[in-house]
Amino acid sequence: MLTPLLFVCPICACPATRETLPLCQGCAKALIPCPELCPGCGRADCLRPGCRKLIFNPMASLRKRHALWLSIGRTHETLKRWKKIPSRGLDRLLFLNPGPKARLEGFGDACFVPIPQNPWRSWRLGRNPAEDISGFAARLSGGTVHRILEWVNHSGPQARLPRAERECQERTFRLRAGERLLDPSRTYIVTDDFTTTGKTLEAAADSLRAKGAKRVESLVLGYRPYLRQNLKILTAGE
Ligand SMILES: [Zn+2]
Ligand SMILES: [Zn+2]
Fold first, then answer.
1. Ligand in nearest proximity to the CA of 14
2. Could you read off the pLDDT of 1-59 as tens digits, one per residue?
3. Which of 66, 93, 119, 229 has the fewest CB atoms within 10 Å, i.e. the most exposed one?
4. Inside any domain, residue 27
């Protein structure tokens, strides 16, 4: 029997339970783990053998793409809540419960490279969620966090731009001054809070590869599918 508390779930305003703080039991149960993403195109509903990007581009920037949660509906609200107001309860639900924990532990001894924060975002949050995600992943997997990337051209908060513009816009990264060449024998995992198109992650991966990294993967907290059809396929089995 779960213990109802006087606290109210920030997502749905139902009473929170001690075991799932700060969420209610319903919202905690509603969290949807993200299925494997196609390493070619980054979509969750791609049929791998037919993926054009895989067929024509075996040397894609990212060898694998990982996402902990499928960022739709209540899950998206919960992830946004963690991003804005992190808490131990949400840390536990999103990173330390058996499901996400096992996935993070599976990374082994990797180098986690957070996507650097854009200035507008740091002003608003005062921290970089990508660094927090890297931190959890490194702690659980025995890996290390490397804050080695910086933006080359930054032109404003990406989330506010229309999709077409977001995709056209050139976004590149470079290694911070003073960073040495990367170790080709290590796995580098670029991390960010959310991904939709994967373009930012690809740009970061390209800059690591240009500096000697051979194996680059990506990890995000939430994968946001943007096509209705994509969403339908993903929720069909529920
Ligand atoms: Zn709730
Ligand atoms: Zn694909």
1. 1
2. 566 667 899 999 999 999 999 999 999 999 999 988 887 778 887 765 667 666 555 56
3. 229
4. no
Say if strands 173-175 and 149-151 run parallel, antiparallel, or are unpaired.
Answer: antiparallel
Ligand 2 center to 7 CA (angstroms): 43
**Total structural domains within the chain:** 1
pTM for the predicted model, two decimal places: 0.85
For 193, the 3-state DSSP assignment is: strand
Beta-carbon contacts of 138 under 8 Å, excluding residues fewer than 6 positions away, are: 110, 112, 144, 145
What spacing in Å lies between the alpha carbon of 65 and ligand 2's midpoint?
Answer: 11
Expressed as residue numbers, the domain containing 231 is 45-68+107-235
Separation of CA 8 and ligand 2 centre (Å)? 41
160-164 own/partner pairs: CB under 8 Å, 24+ apart = 163/196, 163/197, 163/226
Q: Looking at the domain assignment, is residue 83 inside a domain? A: no
Distance between Cα 235 and ligand 2 center (Å): 18
